[in-house]
Amino acid sequence: MKTFYLCIIIFSLSVQLTKSQNLWQFIGPNQNENIIAINSADLIFSGDSSGLYKSTENGVNWTYLNTGTMGSSILSIHFNANNDIFVGTEITGIFRSTDNGVIWEAINNGLSNLYGYCITSTEINHIFVGTRQGVFKSTDNGNFWEQANVGVPLTYIFSISSNSSGTIFLGTIMQSDGGIFRSTNDGYEWERLTNGLPYGANYRSIAFDTNNYIYTQGQYTGIFKSTDNGENWNETTNFPITIVNQFFITDSNYIFAATLNGIFLSNNGAETWNNISGNLANEKITSVAVNSEGIVFVGTSQGVFKSDNIQTEVLKDKNKELFFSLSQNHPNPFNPSTKISWQTPVSDWQTLKVYDVLGNEVATLVNEYRAAGSYEVEFKSTVGSHQLANGVYFYQLKAGDYVETKKMILMK
Questions:
Q1: In this structure, are 51 and 140 located in the same domain?
Q2: Is the pTM here over 0.70, yes or no?
Q3: Which of 238, 243, 247, 193 minimizes the C-alpha distance to 215?
Q4: pLDDT classification of 178: cutoffs 50, 70, 90
Q5: Contact in structure between 107 and 96 (CB atoms under 8 Å)
Q6: Which of 315, 345, 368 is the last residue of a domain?
Q7: What domain count does the chain have?
Q8: Per-residue pLDDT tens over the stretch 379-401
Q9: Other CB atoms within 10 Å distance of the CB of residue 25
Q10: Across 54-58, 89-93, 231-235, 314-318, least confident range
Q11: Residue 206 forms part of a structural domain
């Protein structure tokens, strides 16, 4: 029997922040308070009180997507593993598009509260929505919702996020029984996490780095970090007295914090922070996102802005070199086939293998010398004459000394 292991290699990058005070360029689509999100195809979506917009050209042009069908302010935007778009609104509930925003449908069956503050999805595409009255869960891509509030107060849920192992975390409004909650069983039960966190704080954002370290903030406090899945929290004190509206963490573990008073960046696990607000100093930053080119976009109270300076001087080296990366397979769950992509910055012997939950090798997809670059292969549920059973499988990339493993699900 062949077994696998997970080895995480962290590459540190030197950071040289620009001295320019004119980091940010206004790109629209209006001058309202915007939230933004970018999908895996680098499509930018921006939502405000007037509806939803899309840009396919890094914000050069925008398309208005809905004509009053949503009817209220956009509060949240989320993409699942299939790039379906879920939008949470202030009054009219949750909307879904499966064609990049061309057609929208309201998906509120089972929702007893129509405030969609936050949305997340797990690796098996179960969707969770935080509302004014707790959490709702859908196992059929939003067609029907059921309450998932065992252990969580029926109150405002302002943040919800799922890590790569399927554990779900949420943050609530400030109150005596609020704070951070965790579910390790797909939302059936929640447990309150309090060790090291300030009493009854309001947590607006939760994010994970590539090590599954967790970052959050109670209003007007420092940043809190957990390295043990939320059991214990430690505060980093080098942070301004403000409120974080959203964290965004890149694959290289650069942490952006969008706040009520500008935008901040850390490249050392939230130990220290740099103010990169530039001409947006003291501006309300509602959201932040980074595309595949490393360009940083922010939603603000005055519209959407982007910065090429941060892209050039912070996120990438001058040669735009590749870094080690094994992507999540898509689609996931899959049937009968899925695609796996990866990239390596070195030329070396590379193997990509699939294992079952017992560690038995199921298939070898790649076993050869390859040059540095980006690659993609297809994996089918039929291996030779053998049809794989439903369940969890793991795929592992080895390239030189680099090893990374990810989970995928076959569901018929």
A1: yes
A2: yes
A3: 247
A4: confident
A5: yes
A6: 315
A7: 2
A8: 998 887 788 999 999 999 988 77
A9: 13
A10: 314-318
A11: yes
